[in-house]
Amino acid sequence: MTSSDSSPAADALVRVSGAREHNLRNVDLSVPRDSLVVFTGVSGSGKSSLAFGTLYAESQRRYLESVAPYARRLIDQAGVPDVDSITGMPPAVALQQQRGGRSARSTVGSITTVSSLVRMLYSRAGDYPDGQPMLYAEDFSANTVQGACPECHGIGRVYAVPEERMVPDPSLTIRERAIASWPTAWHGHQLRDVLVALGYDVDVPWKDLPRKDRDWILYTDETPFVPVHSRLTLAEARAATKAGVEPSYSGTFVGARRYVLDTFANSKSASMKRRVAQYLDAALCPVCHGKRLKPEALSVTFEGLDIAEFSQLPLRELADMLSDVVAGAQQAETVPNGAVLHANSRRAATEQRIAAGGSAHAAASDVRRTANRSPEKRAAASRLASGLIERLRPLTDLGLGYLSLSRT
To answer: Nearest CA to 110 among 73, 139, 135, 141?
Structure first.
């Protein structure tokens, strides 16, 4: 850390003036860029307020100005720092001393927010099929209604719940828990009571029930809400209803398949997800082929790759490719047929990597091509690629270049 009045060249500094976040009191300083800088001090001296509350918060705020309002709402924002000015601020990644709030769909790209910039790259600088209108950044996210594959709803796999999984022993009755996929304890008793209220005999072996009854119990999406007499046989329940006995409660029926799928998709309990997963047969989605996005989003390419293929590249190869994009854009401004020369140089480099035993990801780049983009798209591609390179550099410098953005 240096003082604000004696420092290296101005373009190699992040200059902070009048930082007042939390316990900071009008702090002025200059921080060298592209260097390892350590803030030290006693507890409460303002280290985190400066690093996270001021520098990182301002970097994130500037980045979010370029993000679509809808996508901006999906990002945990650090807020606007209390500071007079900050200059020379590059894009930033914050690695805080706490566990992130991961979900089943969290990836390297989503946790670092790099995927937000990738989606913007495809939206603004991607190569669209003839006649296809431009897509917004959220159309390239499998976690939004706009972008998710309509068949698998952004999961990448489709799930079947076969009867032999849900009912492993058809000699049992429903009361004896023939439907193993239903919940245990009170909820399971409730579902059996609701079936009795609906007129089904839960004391007959499963294999002896009519096929239409078995199919409805397992596969219906109906959710009837009925008054229930708790833990009675079918005959006893009918007698109680006829005698005008007050029902114990009212309950909702949920089919066995629907219970499994809803629990697997929506439960926040890892143990419940594991329990219902044993009743599922999973297969690759036939529409998106595991890429989780709608066909329109997958038809847009950048350097010959759709966004799913792009996100599967190791970070170090991704940074190399984006560096070539920036160099190619600069070359295209000064050299005739620059885009063609750029494509040829990339193909030659790929052949060298393959000959040297390069990875499958590198080999796949043999089919990539740099399209003859318009000057506007070329400029957008260069700016966004430069931003991505800056976001990827801290990760590759930490030795994480082997990861991909799609890594969970």
So the answer is: 141
Residue with tokens 């919940």, as numbered in its chain: 183
What are the Cα distances from residue 322, in Å, to 121, 270, 382, 391? Answer: 11, 38, 8, 12
Neighbours of 390 (CB within 10 A): 16
For the chain, domains (ranges, CATH) are 10-87 (3.40.50.300), 108-127+301-397 (no CATH), 163-283 (1.10.8.280)
Strands 305-306 and 225-228: unpaired
Q: What angle do CA 356, 362, 365 make, to 5 degrees?
A: 125
Q: Nearest-CA neighbor of 6 among 33, 36, 29?
A: 29
SS3 190: helix
Residue ranges of the chain with pLDDT lower than 70? 1-11, 67, 70-72, 74, 96-104, 334-372
What is the phi-psi region of residue 330: left when phi exceeds 0, alpha when psi lies from -120 to 50, beta otherwise? alpha
Q: What single-letter amino acid sits at 167?
A: V
CA-wise closest residue to 58 among 38, 85, 95, 31: 85
Q: Cα–Cα distance between 54 and 267 in angstroms, integer?
A: 37
Distances (CA, A) of 54 to 58, 66, 75, 280, 326: 6, 19, 18, 48, 30
> How many other CB atoms are found less than 10 A from the CB of residue 72?
14
CA separation for the pair 222, 227 (Å, rounded): 16
**pLDDT tens digits, residue range 139-168?**
999 999 999 999 998 989 998 999 999 999
pLDDT digit string, tens, across residues 162-192: 999 999 999 999 999 999 999 988 999 999 9
